[in-house]
Amino acid sequence: MTGPGRALADAEPLVDRVLTRHRERTVAELLRHIPEQSPPYLYDLAGDYPVRPSKGLRGALCLATCEAFGGRPERALNPAVTVEMFHNAFLIHDDIQDGSELRRGLPTLSAAYGVEVALNVGNATNLLGLRRLMANRRELGGELAWRLFEETELMCRQSLEGQAMEIAWIRDNACDLAPADYYRMCLKKTSWYTFLYPCRAGLLVAEGAHTEATRLDRFGWYLGAAFQIQDDVLNLVGTLADYGKEIAGDLWEGKRTLLLIHLLERCTPAERARTERYLEGTRAQRGPGAAEEVRWLSERLTAYGCVESARAAADGLVAAAEREIAEVMEAAPAPAEPSEEAAEAREFLLALPGFVVTRGR
Amino acid sequence: MTGPGRALADAEPLVDRVLTRHRERTVAELLRHIPEQSPPYLYDLAGDYPVRPSKGLRGALCLATCEAFGGRPERALNPAVTVEMFHNAFLIHDDIQDGSELRRGLPTLSAAYGVEVALNVGNATNLLGLRRLMANRRELGGELAWRLFEETELMCRQSLEGQAMEIAWIRDNACDLAPADYYRMCLKKTSWYTFLYPCRAGLLVAEGAHTEATRLDRFGWYLGAAFQIQDDVLNLVGTLADYGKEIAGDLWEGKRTLLLIHLLERCTPAERARTERYLEGTRAQRGPGAAEEVRWLSERLTAYGCVESARAAADGLVAAAEREIAEVMEAAPAPAEPSEEAAEAREFLLALPGFVVTRGR
Predict the structure, then answer these.
(1) CA distances (Å), B64 to each of A27, B30, B234, in order?
(2) Which of A94, A161, A231, B228 has its CA 20 to 30 A from that of A104?
(3) DSSP track, B312-334
(4) Chain A residues near residue B163 by CB distance under 8 angstroms
(5) Helix, strand, or coil here: A83?
(6) How far is A148 from chain B (nearest CA, A)?
(7) How confident is the model at residue B242 (pLDDT cuts 50, 70, 90)?
(8) What is the per-residue pLDDT across B66-104, written as a single tens digit (0 to 9) for each?
(9) Within a 13 Å sphere around the CA of B287, how many CA atoms are in the beta-carbon half?
(10) Strands, DSSP E only, in chain B?
(11) pLDDT at A302 exceeding the cut of 70
(12) For B172, which residue in chain A has the nearest alpha carbon?
């Protein structure tokens, strides 16, 4: 095992432990805020995705950042629940948009209950996130509550714009994308709500409304890009049991992954033409008959070493993220005798980059 | 022309004039707040539904309520834009959920661009509504901005719950509903965001965060029920050019309208069994072959006088709304020399109930 992050594989038990602890706490709190009284097919389904097996990464990152920078994590619990609510709403809507069949190893809400119900449950989940934001006013005071509102609005905006970029590429059959386009999309679609927002929220809760909440942005941005690349790689090479989603789903959907961009840069003109032809139209238009083309594309991605080069790019991003978090921490040293949890939270943040590229799902 | 509201038909030019004036102002302001920079298929489509022909009722009601109760309407412009943003987002999502083809006489966003794009545009439109709410802090002060947030959260919650009720009835093939169930659904799905919320927002802006903003609730609730019944009637008997939606679309979708509830209360057991059989399953499962059943249902609705009884119910609600608005206005008399606009706003509110049941779309 070599390369950046790989040396930290020993830290995996710690990362797993912290994730599990924060996830249990966040999910319990999240479920506590889902109304019990409701017409059927609304709040009763809002707890479905959150209790499925998952890492709970976003909530945990919010709690750990708060703790690592001197805050009491219970004060960050509400923002942690908020980001998990918005995340789950995003997944529900994303599954509708992609026509996905599986999420976290089980049928998607849209597959199980139809688009009509799923869209409503997604909207209800967003609204529950908004309610947690409003609760901050009482729990954290008006000033901080507004700052978190502003950060949340920005995060939602970035996510939507990132998703729109991806949709437009598929729709307009963009075949001339450079890695820089992909990274920009990653920053908006993945990094912002998975890493930048939880870090900013954690810093704000720990240090107050006027702190420099952007100082973990580069950490989050590198980490998010590495995370997305790893996700793309797992989508191609993972096994269904570990990954919980359809294998090669990205190829079926024509997603513009770094793998695909690398392939288009490297293949012969004839292969490029065949790939562009395959990518035309929607998944539905291609139909199940496209299986042979998916196999061919998958085989070409392997032949041109696109998995290796994507992994190498992720490793570089992980190394950069490790440098970033170490620098930010050095500038804000832990107290002489930190609590065990605060010390563990700092270890967690330092080990997270390595974890992102070694994870199996 | 007899019955409540009919006497006010002379007021139609006034209602039209006020609606047009407020609509022009609100739409212009709404468009000003749609970002110009954007990936394609996002903000560029957020202005599509708002500029299509419409009454702009919700924004106008917010502005007129503010003006009628002594506020400066320009202070209510932002809340008026907010409610129109949320309304348009709701329509975009609703069209996805219903699989509708037409909206305001043109193809729905989902029909023209697919579910993937439409869902994103709906979410972006909601987010733009949220941004207008946040702008209130600067324009109206923190206290009032929070109150409007609370009202908006409640309004979104009511709308979602009302829509979930309707979805559940179709999904579970509810055939034993009473008019009271329908009215409860109307209050949540229609009245709240079309009437209660704009009135409450208008009162809050006119009179401040601590006013009794609920005192137009009954007015709004009666008006909303009458409005929804009229919408159901138009869906059955309107002409496409006037109505802008598919005719008898509610029957195709199996919607539980007051008309249908009246029919199930009145028809023979054999007719009831046939209706229940028709209503089983989704529109997609029924397929275009259901045209004969839709014709039969439509003919039965006429034969049992369901249109007349629904119209009579709407007339009763209009009369109740007229009494409510007159009482609330008496308790808060206009100043001795109101501005021309303020006087007109009061006339508008008094005439609105009659307008709701005489409108052709």
Answers:
(1) 45, 17, 26
(2) A161
(3) HHHHHHHHHHHHHHHHHHHHSPP
(4) 120
(5) helix
(6) 12
(7) low
(8) 999 999 999 999 999 999 999 999 999 999 998 889 999
(9) 2
(10) 102-103, 106-107
(11) yes
(12) A40
Task: Please give the ipTM for the structure prediction.
Answer: 0.92
B137-148 pLDDT tens trace: 999 999 999 999
Percent of chain B past pLDDT 70, that is, above it, reads 94
In angstroms, the CA A127 to CA B152 distance is: 10
Tell me phi and psi for residue A103, to 5 degrees.
Answer: -145, 125
Identify the structural domains of chain A with CATH numbers, from first to last. Answer: 6-358 (1.10.600.10)
Q: Is A115 on the interface with B (CB under 8 A)?
A: yes
Q: For the packed helices A269-279 and A258-266, what is the interaxial angle rounded to 10 degrees?
A: 140
CB A188 within 8 A of CB A165: yes
Q: Is B123–A172 a contact, with Cβ atoms under 8 angstroms apart?
A: no
Q: What is the nearest CA distance from B75 to chain A, expressed in angstroms?
A: 21
Instruction: Determine the residue among B167, B172, B189, B256 to mutate to test chain A binding: the one whose Cβ has the most chain A Cβ atoms within 10 Å.
Output: B167
Provide the Cα torsion B314, B3, B360, B246; round to 10°: 40
Amino acid at A210: H
Total Cβ atoms within 10 A of residue B173:
12
Collapsing DSSP to helix, strand or coil, B106 comes out as strand
What's the pLDDT score for residue A181? 97
Q: Which residue of A has its CA nearest to B168?
A: A40
Q: Is A50 left (phi over 0), alpha (psi -120 to 50) or beta?
A: alpha
Task: State how far the Cα of A220 lies from the Cα of A124, in Å rounded to an integer.
Answer: 28
Contacts (Cβ under 8 Å, ≥6 apart) of B292 = none
Tell me, yes or no, if B117 comes closer than 8 A to chain A by beta carbon.
yes
Question: Do residue A120 and residue B134 have CB atoms under 8 angstroms apart?
Answer: no
A142, A150, A167 ranked by CB distance to B142: nearest: A142
CB of A171 within 8 Å of a chain B CB? The answer is: yes
Cα A255 to Cα A274: distance, rounded to the nearest angstrom = 16
Give the tens place of pLDDT for each residue, B175-199: 999 999 999 999 999 999 999 999 9
Instruction: Tell how strand A106-107 and strand B106-107 pair up.
Output: unpaired
**Pick from A301, A79, A111: nearest CA to A203:** A79
Minimal C-alpha gap between B102 and chain A (Å): 17
Check CB contact under 8 Å for B164 and A41. yes
Burial readout A259-298 (b: 16 or more C-beta within 10 A, e: otherwise): bbbbbbebbeeebeebbeebbeeebeebeeebeebbebbb
Q: Measure the CA angle with vertex A209, ends A206 and A212; round to 5°.
A: 80
Find the DSSP H helices in B99-178: 109-140, 142-171
C-alpha closest to that of A66 among A166, A191, A202: A202
Distance from CA of A184 to the nearest CA of B (A): 12
Q: B17-37 burial, b for 16+ CB within 10 Å, e for fewer?
A: ebbebbbebbbebbeebbeee
Q: What tokens appear for A169 in the block?
A: 């590429």
Q: How far apart are CA B270 and CA B268, in angstroms?
A: 5
